[in-house]
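step: validate -> pass
step: tokenize input -> pass
step: predict -> running
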Amino acid sequence: MKNSRLLGRLLLGAMIFLAQSCAPGTGPKPVSSLPSSGDGSKPPGDRSGEGQRNPTKEGNTDQSSLKQLQEGQSPKTPASSPLKDVFFGFDRYDLSEEARSILRGNSEWMKTNAAARVEIEGHCDERGTNEYNLALGAKRAQVARDYLVSLGIAADRLSTISYGEEIPVCKETVETCWLQNRRARSVIASGKPAS
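step: predict -> pass
step: emit ->
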């Protein structure tokens, strides 16, 4: 009798575990600072989740890392891009002097191209949990955004999104590769640039 009760409880526990494992995913999604309608629905024309919002026709510089990955391209910022990536130390989201210099250059381009909106993507290396890296990526994107605002760029021209460790530009498990993945990438999200 005791064995049958124990067996029944084990079977019930296994069924509950399997039911939860097969449920639709409720894991973390990329964190974005774009405004929401509040009711969970997307506004007309919203392409969030596609990694790109209202792109320009300026070649590769307008494509988010996610869009490039979906198209089989490298998610690395092209050398020809007017906006440059900034890089971070391990487990850090503070801006180095080099990162500030790069962001000053990005802000100059944005001042010249006043119609352009920019999305700042936060990225991490593979170390740490998905949740931790999504949060760290969000902090990296936010600190870059805040610095651009301090340089005179209107906050409503900037949005942020975190991809955490999900879209690496380098997949080797060495420090030189991880360094390339710890970045805030600025992508032209909308508006026709003047140059």
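step: describe -> Residues 59-190 form a domain with the 60s Ribosomal Protein L30; Chain: A; fold (CATH 3.30.1330.60).
step: cleanup -> pass
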